[in-house]
TrEMBL record:
Protein name, as recorded: SDR family oxidoreductase
Cited Gene3D superfamilies: NAD(P)-binding Rossmann-like Domain (3.40.50.720)
Coiled coil (residue ranges): none
GO cellular component, one term: membrane
Pfam families noted in UniProt: adh_short
Length: 241
């Protein structure tokens, strides 16, 4: 069966690993014929990823969009809704983090973070959820963070945005339960990705890898339709950094 899966922030890090894991699943699930809609701002990264996914047997569609811009969000949703009969899965993964002491955070840090982590995520979800609601099926993942329920000293703006995403998850769930749509909140701790910039070998040794997040996400998708994995919390074994 065809499964249309949109992954935002697919070009790097956790989103890239989720795309590859869905592509690999095509080999293990006889009835799973994925079409992966890969979205981010950097076309070259999406092109490389698309070839890797195709090599695993998945179909792909590359869509460049800046999800902090409402016009791009609308173009993306129009593309998905007009081109595909319906959307089976949305992985809300695109996001940024500006980690600085409280006094150094600027208005630009605030606006940049909120425009992608909250505004873009909200309007994309709103549009695609409406289509799932009509079909009475679908699955939306949010890659929030442990910072969605726990504060860290250098992550005040990031935490505000992630606590906000969690608010959306909880509100959306109330609607989703009435129309057979599954919502999964994925809360990872520290994962080695480009979001962190340069990371020392010592730090890397105690952090998770993107595939550690991707594997349980795809497993949650393959639960029977009657079952929703509502939350996935993943931490480095030694705890938060
Ligand atoms: N890494 C961690 O430790 C960690 C822990 C918990 C939660 N998370 C969350 O996991 C998600 C992915 O993080 P990551 O660590 O994988 O980050 P990453 O390596 O920096 O990748 C982020 C992805 O999002 C895309 N993106 C960023 N801004 C965008 C925009 N305005 N429009 C469209 N796409 C955009 C990036 O591509 P372009 O720049 O090409 O657009 C990239 O593909 C984020 O929501 C993050 O908050 C990460």
């Amino acid at each position: 069966m065809k499964h249309t899966i949109t992954i935002t922030g697919a070009g790097k890090g956790i989103g890239r690993a989720i795309a590859l894991e869905f592509a690999r699943a095509a080999k293990h699930h006889a009835d799973f014929d994925p079409v992966l809609l890969l979205c981010s701002r950097t076309r070259s990264e999406l092109k490389t990823l698309a070839l890797e996914c195709q090599a695993e047997g998945a179909k792909t569609d590359i869509i460049t969009a800046d999800l902090s811009k409402i016009d791009d969000v609308r173009q993306l949703t129009d593309h998905i809704i007009n081109r595909y009969d319906g959307i089976d899965c949305l992985v809300n993964n695109a996001g940024i983090g500006r980690f600085k002491p409280l006094e150094e955070l600027t208005e630009e840090d605030f606006d940049a973070t909120m425009s992608i982590n909250l505004k873009g995520t909200f309007f994309l979800t709103q549009a695609l959820f409406a289509s799932m609601q009509k079909r009475r099926s679908g699955h939306i993942f949010f890659i929030t963070s442990v910072a969605a329920e726990k504060a860290f000293e250098t992550s005040s703006i990031y935490s505000m945005s992630k606590f906000g995403q969690r608010g959306l998850v909880e509100a959306l769930r109330l609607h989703a339960r009435k129309c057979n749509v599954r919502i999964t909140d994925v809360m990872p701790g520290a994962v080695v990705t480009p979001m962190w910039g340069e990371i020392s070998d010592e730090m890397q040794a105690v952090m998770m890898r993107p595939e550690d997040i991707a594997i349980p996400v795809v497993q949650a998708y393959f639960q029977p339709a009657r079952t929703t994995v509502e939350e996935i919390v993943l931490r480095p074994t030694g705890g938060d950094l």
